[in-house]
Specification:
The protein has about 110 residues and is of the alpha+beta class. The protein has a single domain, classed as Alpha-Beta Complex (Aspartate Aminotransferase, domain 1). It contains 3 helices and 6 strands; from the N terminus they run αββββαββα. The chain has a 6-stranded antiparallel sheet with strand order 1-2-3-4-6-5. Helix 1 packs across helix 3. It is globular and about 35 Å long. The termini are far apart. The model has no long low-confidence stretch (mean pLDDT about 95).
Length: about 110
């Protein structure tokens, strides 16, 4: 499955103002990191739906899942704690920025990785 460059570009643009951001192709898409800690990801799934993945942290996961656009992330058969996903159609630029603020706050509280 090819990486969805349109979704990755939206994420890249939304994170452009933040220092310490890097990216890596993994999990079938493009993942974004702050100081080596995963923030988010973007990919198009086999069902054709583009989705964003947000690492909000386990402490914020329950509150994040109260948003009707958010779902738990299941990778293979395993639920990824602290992560939510949102379909691209439910994530306009304002929503993308709101989700990323949660991700950035979580990642900023973690020690930097090499």
């Amino acid at each position: 499955m090819p990486v969805d460059e349109v979704l990755a570009a939206r994420m890249r643009d939304a994170l452009a103002a933040h220092a310490g951001i890097s990216e890596k192709r993994m999990m079938g898409g493009t993942c974004f990191f702050l100081s080596g800690n995963m923030l988010s990801g973007a990919r198009r799934h086999k069902d054709g739906v583009g989705r964003f993945m947000f690492r909000v942290g386990k402490a914020q996961e329950t509150a994040a899942l109260l948003d009707p656009t958010a779902e738990a992330v299941i990778h293979g058969t395993r639920k990824l704690g602290g992560f939510v996903r949102v379909d691209e159609d439910a994530c306009d630029d304002g929503a993308l920025q709101r989700w990323l603020q949660l991700c950035l706050a979580h990642a900023a509280a973690l020690p930097a990785k090499d």
